[in-house]
Amino acid sequence: MKILYAVQGTGNGHVSRAIELIPLLQQYGEVDVFLSGNKSQVKIPYDIKYKSKGITFSYTKKGGLAYWTTLRELQFSRAYKEMRQFPIEQYDVVLNDFEPITAWACRLKKKPCLGFGHQASFQSKAVPRPKHFDLIGEAVLKRYAPASHYVGLHFDKYDQNIFLPILRKELYTLPFDQQNHYTIYLSHYHHQQVVPHLLKVTDTRFDLFSKHCTHKEIHKNVTLHPIDGQAFMQSLASGSGMITGAGFEGPAEAITLGKKLLVLPILGQYEQWCNAEAMRRLGIKVVRKINKDFSETLKDWLAHTPIVHKDYPNQTQQILDYIFTEKLKEML
Fold it and tell me: Pfam families under this entry (predicted)?
């Protein structure tokens, strides 16, 4: 069986999930990987047969979606050409993690495609949404990388074809050497926007990981780190909590480790506001943006917000068994 696994390379979560899935997928057949986009700080340590610029999004240093930069970089004519020319008919199974080129190649050539991952869960109306319904945001979630069938991942089993998160396997074996600090990763903010507020919370230590940082720096109670997956995991495991965007995999890791969690959704990114609503319902602190009172918000969160802990088991093999037995029957 020839399997095409298409991965959205813009987010670290998609790539981290791919690292877990690729060796397991090889049990079911010959696997080729298609990687779309190049903005992830995590690298896939396996052969990538196809690479594309894809259709990606850009962000401002203050945490919002950079609309004009995004439009300038979209290059629809190039993407459409790739969709039409891609040899999708060579594959028996197409597994797509929110990757638009191969998803639309399947649609154009009437090829079955399984949408698999967090974004696939939004095909269900049972998944939490924010009060402010966003028509464009819903269209992006459902039409950006359309599929014929779906298996989703989310913080809870909201519907029949939705499973709990797939997390990095080393998460379950990390040593818990408690060091009483808080781990921060806010990809949509420059660390210069964040550090001044952290310095005002003088009795708390912070490990801040930033893509704009090239070497480790210490500023009183704040330690700046360049992006390093292993160092980040060690910081998260040994710390007391996490401050991050309202993505999926990062918050899910904090939740299953039993860490205090605060999330800041990306302005203008509807999916993150949906995630934020799901986490709010779980009891997790959601902050709209970093403003002049952010240090006071942090102090209140540290003092009063309880920890939300959910045990997300390592079930990757079971999910793939379901896909390649039950789900495949529907597709072929």
Answer: Glyco_trans_1_3 (PF13528)
Residues 207 and 181: beta-carbon distance below 8 Å? yes
Burial class of residue 250 in the structure, from the number of CB atoms within 10 Å of its CB (0-12 exposed, 13-18 middle, 19+ buried)? buried
Reference 81, options 63, 58, 108, 99; nearest CA is 108
Q: Which two tokens stand for residue 302?
A: 């540290």
Q: Which of 102, 87, 83, 90 is nearest to 5 (CA)?
A: 102
Q: How far apart are CA 171 and CA 194, in angstroms?
A: 27
The answer to whether the CB of 40 falls within 8 A of the CB of 11 is yes
What tokens appear for 69 in the block? 């930069």
Report the C-alpha gap between 34 and 54 in whole angstroms.
10
Domain residue extents for the chain: 2-166+315-331, 169-304
- 60 φ, ψ to 5°? -80, 165
Q: Are 307 and 260 in contact (CB under 8 A)?
A: yes
CA 265 to chain centre: 12
Tens-place pLDDT, residues 65-81: 555 565 566 667 888 89
Same fold, 2-166+315-331 and 169-304: yes
Strand blocks (E) in 136-288: 149-153, 162-163, 181-185, 205-210, 217-219, 222-226, 241-245, 260-264, 285-286
Q: What pLDDT score was predicted for residue 138?
A: 93
Residues of the chain with pLDDT under 70: 38-42, 56-75, 176-177
Class of domain 2-166+315-331: alpha beta
Q: Which two tokens stand for residue 56?
A: 């990606």
**What DSSP string describes 159-175?**
STTEEPPP--GGGGG--
Residue 183: predicted pLDDT: 98
Return d(Cα 293, Cα 295) in angstroms, integer: 6
**Where do the DSSP E strands lie in 46-113?**
50-52, 93-97
Residues facing 238 on adjacent strands = none
Say which CATH class 169-304 falls into.
alpha beta
Q: What is the pTM of this model?
A: 0.90
